[in-house]
Task: inverse folding
C-alpha cells in the first residue's frame, strides 16, 4: 500500500476498526426498482398527507422519519407534494473555484420525479435555493425541494408554483459564501437518514422520508388509514358517541 494513496489508507483504517457494516449501511444502498413505477407511486403518495404516513412509519418502528420542524413550507397553504429523494450537501465556504462546475453537474443529474433534499451544514448567511434553481429544476421534472437552510427569490418561487420547504429566507446567494461538496450521497438531516431513492412527502405539516425498501407497503397501509379516517369523520358528524366509534374500530 502506498503511503500517499488516500483510498488505500482509508480501506486499511476501515478494516482495522471493523467498520465494514457502517460503510455498507451508509454507502451500500442501491436504488432498487419498486413493484410499481415511480411515477405511479408518487401520484398515489400525493393523495395522502404526512400525518398518515408518519403513523404508518411508527407501525414499522421508525419513529424519527420527519425532517426537523425547522424545515417548514415556504407557502403556508402548501399542497401535498411527493417525489424521489435527490440529495445535496453544501457547507459554508469562502472559495469559488469549482462551485459552478459541480453545480452544473448536479443540475444535469436531476431528473423526472426527483425531490431535492439539501443539507446546508448549518449555513446562516446564504441561501441554497432561489428563482433560477426553481426554474431549472422544474424544467427537468423535479417535484419539489426541502432545504435545511436558506431560500431567496420567494416571489419567483411562489409564481412558479413549485413546492419548497426551508429553514429561513435571506437575500444572500451562496456564491462566495457556501459551496456544494456532494450530491446523491446519504445525508443525516436532524435525526433522519436520507438515501437517494427514498420517498419524500411534504405538506403543510412538514416533510417525511419513507425508506425505499418499504415504500409500497407504507403507501398501501396509509391509503387504508385515510379510508378509515373518512369513516370516523362520518360517524362523528352523524352524532355517534366516543364509545360507539371506538367499538367500530375508530380512534381519536
Result:
Amino acid at each position: 500500500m502506498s503511503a500517499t494513496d488516500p483510498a488505500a489508507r482509508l480501506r486499511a483504517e476501515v478494516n482495522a476498526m471493523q467498520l465494514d457494516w457502517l460503510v455498507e449501511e451508509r454507502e451500500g444502498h442501491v436504488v432498487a426498482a419498486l413493484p410499481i413505477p415511480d411515477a405511479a407511486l408518487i401520484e398515489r403518495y400525493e393523495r395522502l398527507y404526512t400525518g398518515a404516513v408518519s403513523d404508518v412509519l411508527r407501525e414499522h418502528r421508525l419513529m424519527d422519519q420527519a425532517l426537523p420542524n425547522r424545515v417548514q413550507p415556504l407557502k403556508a397553504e402548501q399542497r401535498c407534494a411527493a417525489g424521489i429523494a435527490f440529495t445535496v450537501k453544501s457547507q459554508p465556504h469562502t472559495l469559488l473555484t469549482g462551485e459552478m462546475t459541480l453545480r452544473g453537474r448536479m443540475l444535469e443529474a436531476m431528473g423526472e420525479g426527483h425531490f431535492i433534499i439539501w443539507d446546508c451544514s448549518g449555513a446562516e448567511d446564504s441561501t441554497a435555493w432561489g428563482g433560477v434553481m426553481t426554474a431549472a429544476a422544474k424544467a427537468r421534472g423535479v417535484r419539489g425541494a426541502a432545504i435545511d437552510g436558506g431560500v431567496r427569490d420567494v416571489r419567483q418561487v411562489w409564481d412558479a408554483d413549485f413546492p419548497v420547504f426551508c429553514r429561513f429566507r435571506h437575500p444572500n446567494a451562496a456564491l462566495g459564501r457556501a459551496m456544494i461538496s456532494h450530491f446523491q450521497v446519504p445525508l443525516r438531516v436532524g435525526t433522519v437518514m436520507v438515501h437517494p431513492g427514498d420517498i419524500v412527502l411534504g405538506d403543510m405539516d412538514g416533510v417525511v422520508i419513507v425508506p425505499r425498501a418499504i415504500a409500497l407497503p407504507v403507501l398501501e397501509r396509509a391509503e387504508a388509514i385515510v379510508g378509515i379516517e373518512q369513516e370516523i369523520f362520518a360517524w362523528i358528524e352523524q352524532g355517534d358517541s366516543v364509545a360507539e366509534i371506538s367499538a367500530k374500530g375508530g380512534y381519536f
Summary: Residues 3 and 9 are 7 Å apart (CA to CA). Residues 40-247 form a domain with the Glucose Oxidase; domain 1 fold (CATH 3.50.30.40). Residues 215-237 form the longest helix (23 residues).
